[in-house]
Amino acid sequence: MIGSAHVRTVANLAAASMLALLLGACGGGMSLPSFSSSSPPPEAEPGTGPEMPASIRADEIVGRWGLASFQNPADRARTEAAARAQCKNPYVITAGSSGGVIMHLADQATPQELRLKGSPSGKNYIGPSGPTPGEQDREIVSFDGRVLITRFIDKDAATRYGNMVYVRCAPRA
Question: CA angle 74-77-80, nearest 5°?
């Protein structure tokens, strides 16, 4: 004979299973926690459509740059000085064959041609062709012709690399 405790347990499991099926069928509302290290992609800017031109031209960032990065905004000045010191071994940004710039994507050993892209909000991005901002893009946080600061859109890359500070190296004498 089956005990009432066993029947109650089976009924509870059946009710939980039905509830899970109903919640899964309604297509949203509740999401279960994920155990992966990746976070959801950032919200796309409203009205993303065809690629917009950036307010910064590719030829403005072609050149030799000292490179460093920071996580804490209070470290920006110190990081700029560290980037300037890297000019003895500069990061070189060259012009691409179709109007972009040759740079590395996050976690890629081989540089490739990337585009400078604008957005309806006025922000500028560097990344492969496609939607703006794309997951592989980096936002141009600031640029004054001498110092370029970028931040990756991908949360994992942004955490690993921080705010990338490029300081223009003096021309070779």
Answer: 130
